[in-house]
Design goal:
By secondary structure, this protein is mainly alpha-helical. The chain has five helices and no strands.
Length: 119
């Protein structure tokens, strides 16, 4: 096995926070924080760069944080679906089962009656 296969998760970086990106877009960061964030975006993954481009194209009137939270919730629901509860079948819901039990009981009683008469 190649040694780099075991090192697959060691190079993951901490993702940039949505609030920090929103502050960057609204101009609430000082020059040093802005520079640090831009440097992280340039060195980071293409996904973060695409997210920033999309947020810039959305315009200033869009509530970005609310939309990001909605997307995260939908993604979480898709990745971790709640298991559907199985409905327990109750015997009273199955009239066919009662009919089968009744017929079996009648057969047992008839067989016992015939056996007791023949002996």
């Amino acid at each position: 096995m190649h040694p780099n296969l075991l090192d697959i998760l060691s190079k993951q970086e901490v993702p940039i926070d949505n609030k920090l990106l929103a502050d960057y877009l609204s101009g609430n960061l000082n020059d040093a924080e802005r520079h640090t964030l831009e440097k992280k975006l340039m060195e980071g993954e293409a996904l973060e760069q695409d997210a920033m481009d999309g947020w810039q194209e959305a315009g200033p009137n869009v509530d970005i944080l609310r939309h990001a939270e909605e997307i995260n919730q939908k993604l979480h629901k898709q990745l971790h679906p709640t298991p559907a509860r199985k409905r327990k079948k109750i015997i009273t819901d199955l009239p066919v089962m009662w009919l089968v039990f009744g017929l079996l009981f009648a057969l047992v009683v008839i067989a016992w009656f015939i056996i007791s008469r023949l002996s």
